[in-house]
Structure formats: structure tokens, C-alpha cells
Specification:
Helix content of chain A: over 70%
Oligomer: heterodimer
Number of helices of chain A: 11
Number of strands of chain B: 12
Distance between the termini of chain A: 19 Å
Strand content of chain B: 25-35%
Radius of gyration of chain B: 19 Å
Number of helices of chain B: 9
Order of helices and strands of chain B: HEEEHEEEHHHHEHEHEEHEE
Distance between the termini of chain B: 48 Å
CATH class of chain A: Mainly Alpha
CATH superfamily of chain A: MetI-like
Mean pLDDT of chain A: 90
CATH architecture of chain A: Orthogonal Bundle
Low-confidence stretches of chain A: none
Shape of chain A: globular
Number of strands of chain A: 0
Strand order of the largest sheet of chain B: 6-7-8-3-9-10
Order of helices and strands of chain A: HHHHHHHHHHH
Strand content of chain A: under 5%
Number of domains of chain A: 1
Radius of gyration of chain A: 23 Å
Structural class of chain A: mainly alpha
Low-confidence stretches of chain B: 1-6
Largest sheet of chain B: 6 strands, mixed
CATH topology of chain A: MetI-like fold
Chain lengths: ~260, ~270
């Protein structure tokens, strides 16, 4: 955390503080009691209310937990499956020939277009969201991973052969570590994607979750609640991204960045 | 390294080897009827213009490529794949960026399942020889070009190869580093006497290091000359001042189309 504070650019800190002040000023003295721009005090009070009384008979933590649970379940499944499939597709021409036609076909379909179908298949509960997130993350990460395998310099395979590596050793010492950067980079994007997809899916049809709060509160003109949900979404997404970045630093220290 | 002295010294015999690549409908011949013997423990440099098939020839000897006409025997045997016994030093260091110096060096014996006692002393010795002390746990991105190349050399030598195949190993190094690496390799060769084939486009490097210099023509690579370098060994950089050195160099340059008689290049 200390390192994080030290890395902050004073210019960025300054502009953010200025924006917050500007927001306070405008919402209190220019657009007074505006529905479109609630003041910081109103947002603060709404947050307090959300955290003490919850929203729609569920606590706010339940909503957060629901959204996070869906996003992370779909994401984790996608990481596992895409790593396996991506490695095979990148490593074996046969696997590539067998699997890529399907991936190439589904990939251009915007994931959101599948929401109604998924709701039809899996209901409006968590299952349809998890399936959607899984699909979005899986397609993206499979391509990243297979590109990662193919980006390993040929010299490293030659060096491995010349050192007498067996196929299993080649996998362990060359393919896996060589693909790791692509996997982790793919994970970072896929995690943001998961977060975006869960909210989008909840906006369309869901009985709970942060996305549900956004739609539901909008229908009842509880704009401060909408703002609070949006702020929560941003903060949680940011936190998850920081975690991935920290993991990347640990796993890929040998890249020297 | 004592074990190496007991190893059978491999000789290399290349008999009527030709090689073509297919490029679309076109067949491009890169090696044309190359015949070359390298005696056990001999140091042979192959020089030639770029694209003459030097590296292709070396990869055939290593066993990376088995699709060619003719015979290529190492230690009297035909090989169907590379082996740690025919150590290959790549032009770029080809270190595994995710392993530190020690782990890169010891990969060969560890992959072969040899017990730690059998290679840890050897690894420490090679690290000392290669002047890598203090960098044992550094990662490749932290090394200079010369150091990375010395790590690669150590990674090859720890397998106690009886043949050493080097593909323009110092081409990417600065001049002074290259001179130091040449001396290091010469010292290693005089100590361990592995049969060595060294590819280079640097005529000075070839004359300085080799027992024999083999000159290849432009594509398709054909042997233009096979010149025994009778300069006394061990050689140091001082040899470049001798008249004999200058004659060898002029002769090889002339074969490559550059005569040093004021007329400039012949083509």
C-alpha cells in the first residue's frame, strides 16, 4: 500500500481532488437538489442507508456477493477451460483444426446478444449469468493463450530439444512458462469483461445483484441509489484489476518490468 | 569435467550432402554436394556470405533437420534428432527467461534425471570459468549480451558434449566482448578438446580460432576451399599482427570476392 501511495502522481491526485470539489460546488450551489447530479452529502447518506438497510429486502453485501460470485465463478471456469483448450490449440495443429472453427464462428457474436437465449436455457437466476461470463471469458482467453503458445521463440524449443527434453519436459519448461504472460494478460482483460457482462446480464433480467439495483432503482427514480451502485461497481472492478496486476508482478517478475 | 576426457571423441563426417527448401512451387537449393570431415577434437570454422547455408549445414549436423540428401554422421552414426552430446550454441542466447542463471545452466542434467551431487560441483565450476559468480540467481533480462552467451555456453558444456556446434555465437556482441569470448572458447577447447564446428561470417574470427577454415560459396552453398591454419596454438590476439595471419585472411577474403590489391570487390 505504501508503494502504491508513493507511485501516485501528484498531478493525478490534484485533478481528482479538484473534480471532487467541483462536484460538491456545482451540486450544492448551481444545480441544487437536482435529480441528475446528487451532491456528495446525498450520496454519502444513500451509501449509509444502503449499507444499513440493504436494498429490496436484501443486504447490500448480498447484492455485492451475488454479482461478484457470478463474475468470479464464470471467470474461474473460463480461466481453467481456456488454458487447457488454448494450450492444445496453440500446441497441436490437429486440435487447432478441430476446435477453431467453432471458436471462430461464435467469437464475432456479441455476448450480450446471447442473454435472452441463456435466460431461456438457464433461467433468470445465477446460472444464465455464469454461463454468459464463462463464454465471453473463455473465447477471449482461449485465443490469447493459443497466441501465447505460438509466440514462444522457436529457438527455445530447439534449445529444449538439444538439451534432451522429453515432450512432458518441453511442456513444463518451455510451453507452460512461455504461455504464462499471455494467460495473465488475458485474465486481466477477461476479468473486466466478466464484471461488465455480469452487470449487463443483471440489467436485463435478474432478481438480485448490483446490476439489478441499477435497473430497479432507475425505475423508481432513486437516482442517488443508481449512482451508489455505479460507484460500487467501479470500485470493485478497480480492486479486482489491482489484484490481478499484483499477481502478474509476482508470476512474471522474470520479464523485468 | 574429468568425465569428458573419458568420452569417446566424436568425429563428424558429411558426405555429399545437398539440401533444398521449397518456397511455393520453387525449389531453392541451399547446400550443394558438401563433403567435409572433422577429426575428433578438431576446431573447424565455416565462413561464407550470408544466406550460403552455413546455419542449415550446422542444423543438419545437430540433427534438428533430417530432411536432406547425402550422409551426415557424427561419431560414425546417423542421428535422427538433436542430443545434449552434440551441444548447440545458438546465435541468440536462447536462455529460458523464466529461469535464473543456475537453473538455466543445470537444465540438461536435471532433465536427464541425474542426481544433484553429479552436477552441482560441475555447475559451480562452470559458473566460475564463465565469470558468472554473483549472478547465479539473476534472470536473463538482467544479463549483458556477453554474459548471456556465457550462460548458454555453460548450459551446453555441463552436458559434457563430445561435439560443440556453434552458430555465429558472437555475431551480436560488441568487438571487445567478442575478443574475450573468442579467447574463452579457445581456452575451453584446448582443455576439453571437443570436436567443434563454428559458423561465422567474420574472417578474422575464423583465422584466429580455427584449426581449419572451410569457405562456402554463395547459395547454393558449395565448399570453395578448406584451409588448414598453421598458426601456433595456443593463440592470443597478438597473432593478428603476424604475416602468416594476414596471408590467411587475404586468401579467404579473396575467395569471398574481396581482393586486397587495391581493385576492391570483384563483384
Amino acid at each position: 500500500m505504501k508503494g502504491f501511495l508513493r507511485r501516485l502522481n501528484p498531478l493525478s491526485v490534484g485533478i481528482v481532488l479538484f473534480a471532487l470539489l467541483l462536484w460538491t460546488f456545482i451540486s450544492n450551489f448551481v444545480l441544487v437538489d437536482s435529480l441528475a447530479l446528487p451532491s456528495p452529502q446525498v450520496i454519502g447518506r444513500t451509501f449509509y442507508d444502503l449499507f444499513t438497510n440493504g436494498y429490496g429486502r436484501r443486504s447490500i453485501f448480498e447484492h455485492i456477493g451475488t454479482s461478484m460470485g457470478r463474475a468470479l465463478t464464470g471467470f474461474t471456469l473460463a480461466v481453467i477451460c481456456s488454458t487447457i483448450v488454448g494450450l492444445s490449440v496453440g500446441y497441436s495443429a490437429t486440435a487447432r483444426a478441430l476446435i477453431m472453427p467453432f471458436i471462430d464462428f461464435i467469437r464475432p457474436v456479441p455476448a450480450l446478444a446471447l442473454v435472452p437465449l441463456f435466460v431461456f436455457f438457464f433461467g433468470i437466476g445465477s446460472m444464465s449469468k455464469i454461463a454468459l461470463i464463462f463464454l465471453g471469458g473463455f473465447l477471449y482467453m482461449t485465443l490469447q493463450t493459443s497466441d501465447g503458445v505460438r509466440s514462444i521463440p522457436a529457438d527455445l524449443f530447439s534449445a529444449g530439444r538439444s538439451l534432451g527434453f522429453t515432450t512432458a519436459q518441453m511442456f513444463r519448461h518451455v510451453v507452460l512458462p512461455g504461455t504464462l504472460p499471455a494467460v495473465v494478460t488475458g485474465m486481466r482483460t477477461a476479468l473486466s469483461l466478466s464484471w461488465a457482462l455480469v452487470v449487463a446480464a443483471e440489467l436485463i433480467a435478474a432478481p438480485s445483484g448490483l446490476g439489478y439495483i441499477v435497473t430497479d432503482a432507475t425505475q423508481f427514480f432513486q437516482i442517488p441509489v443508481v449512482y451508489c451502485a455505479v460507484i460500487l461497481l467501479g470500485a470493485l472492478g478497480f480492486a479486482m484489476d489491482r489484484i490481478i496486476v499484483a499477481i502478474r508482478g509476482r508470476l512474471l517478475h522474470w520479464q523485468g518490468r | 569435467m574429468t568425465a569428458m576426457a573419458n568420452n569417446v571423441q566424436n568425429d563428424i563426417r558429411i558426405i555429399d550432402v545437398s539440401k533444398s527448401f521449397r518456397n511455393g512451387d520453387e525449389q531453392i537449393r541451399v547446400l550443394d554436394d558438401v563433403t567435409l570431415d572433422v577429426a575428433p577434437g578438431e576446431f573447424v570454422c565455416i565462413v561464407g556470405p550470408s544466406g550460403c547455408g552455413k546455419t542449415t549445414l550446422l542444423k543438419l549436423i545437430a540433427g534438428f533437420d533430417t530432411d536432406y540428401e547425402g550422409e551426415c554422421l557424427v561419431g560414425g552414426k546417423h542421428h535422427t534428432g538433436p542430443s545434449p552430446d552434440r551441444g548447440f550454441v545458438f546465435q541468440r542466447p536462447a536462455l529460458f527467461p523464466w529461469y535464473n542463471v543456475t537453473d538455466n545452466i543445470t537444465l540438461g542434467p536435471r532433465a536427464a534425471g541425474k542426481p544433484r551431487e553429479s552436477w552441482s560441483g560441475e555447475a559451480a565450476k562452470l559458473i566460475r570459468i564463465m565469470a558468472l559468480d554473483g549472478f547465479e540467481s539473476s534472470y536473463p533480462y538482467q544479463l549483458s549480451g556477453g554474459m548471456a552467451q556465457r550462460v548458454q555456453l555453460a548450459r551446453v558444456l555441463i552436458n559434457e558434449p563430445s561435439a560443440l556446434l556453434m552458430d555465429e555465437p558472437f555475431g551480436a556482441l560488441d568487438y571487445l566482448t567478442r575478443l574475450r569470448m573468442q579467447q574463452l572458447v579457445l581456452r575451453l577447447h584446448s582443455e576439453f578438446a571437443m570436436t567443434t564446428v563454428f559458423i561465422t561470417h567474420d574472417v578474422d574470427e575464423a583465422v584466429l580460432m580455427a584449426d581449419r577454415v572451410v569457405v562456402l560459396s554463395v547459395r547454393p552453398g558449395r565448399i570453395l576451399a578448406d584451409i588448414r591454419i598453421e598458426l601456433p596454438k595456443p593463440r592470443d590476439v597478438g597473432v593478428v599482427g603476424s604475416a602468416a595471419y594476414g596471408e590467411y585472411k587475404a586468401k579467404i577474403l579473396a575467395l569471398l570476392g574481396f581482393s586486397i590489391d587495391g581493385k576492391g570487390a570483384e563483384h
